[in-house]
């Protein structure tokens, strides 16, 4: 694969003033089993020591992200909570992550508060439902997730689909008919058991151009406002934090990270990234299965940089 970017080891940490790190989850930070690398919390400690804000940015819902970064059994209740983590230097107390970009940019959380969200009109919701049902009638194996700020809804209840949906939606309600649900929807996620990229045009070709489908993984399609993406969300967060593009590092691997990659001077494509992301990022990082994000952050924030 052709790489345009510079190798991560060639960056001199002493020349940097990074204040914000925004990181995609699946295929980027998470390992091959969709788990945080064991070394992550030790690296997170380094970031907090340097007053660097770490922000997960994902197509996943907020409830899933907060569960991953603020474990439910810890007793955490608010933005001032800390987590005791056993690291190589013994137990360390860490302030919890309270900044998130969720639902592929449709929901932005800063310091535990909702600072921005995008709501899709009810008429578009019904168009999406009908489009998915037409696809199913035409023989495609599809499942629809209706995504609101505080939870998600499905009406397909077989084990195979629910197993996939629950990987990304910790708060998931199975209802008789999603068309009857009244809520403010941020986006719609469609799981295609075959090939999402091949299904996009045939299923959603008649949708209003403003609500374009975005391929967010091999099997996932997101339908959302075309003016919204992770890049727009990142700009909102940069404004809230008073951080510039030149002070921002971004890690991503797939097409739904493309706009976000453009909003950070230090943009990293994972070794396993889609060719488009690999071409457009300024730097490249090892694969997610090699804890690539952790490796790069250790290089940048291991205490050798005089800039932090």
Question: If you had to describe this structure to a student in words, what would you say it looks like?
Answer:
The structure is a single chain. Strand 16 (266-270), helix 9 (275-280) and strand 17 (283-285) form a beta-alpha-beta unit. The protein folds into 2 domains: 8-71 and 96-118 and 229-302, 3-Layer(aba) Sandwich (Rossmann fold), CATH 3.40.50.1000; 122-224, Hypothetical Protein, Haloacid Dehalogenase-like Hydrolase, Chain: A, domain 2, CATH 3.30.1240.10. The longest helix has 16 residues, at 122-137. The strands form 4 sheets. Strands 1-17-16-15-2-3 form a 6-stranded parallel beta sheet. A 6-stranded mixed beta sheet has the order 11-10-9-12-14-13, sandwiched between helices. It starts with 5 loop residues before the first strand and ends in an 8-residue tail after the last helix. It has 10 helices and 17 strands. The chain has 308 residues and is of the alpha/beta class. Helices cover 29% and strands 25% of the residues. The chain has helices at residues 25-29, 40-49, 62-69, 122-137, 159-168, 196-204, 230-241, 258-261, 275-280, 292-300; strands at residues 6-7, 20-24, 53-57, 82-87, 90-95, 100-102, 107-110, 113-117, 142-148, 151-154, 172-174, 185-192, 213-215, 220-223, 248-252, 266-270, 283-285. This is HAD family hydrolase. InterPro entries: HAD-like_sf (IPR036412), HAD_sf (IPR023214). It comes from Corynebacterium kroppenstedtii (strain DSM 44385 / JCM 11950 / CIP 105744 / CCUG 35717). One of its GO terms (cellular component) is cytosol. GO terms for molecular function: magnesium ion binding; phosphatase activity.
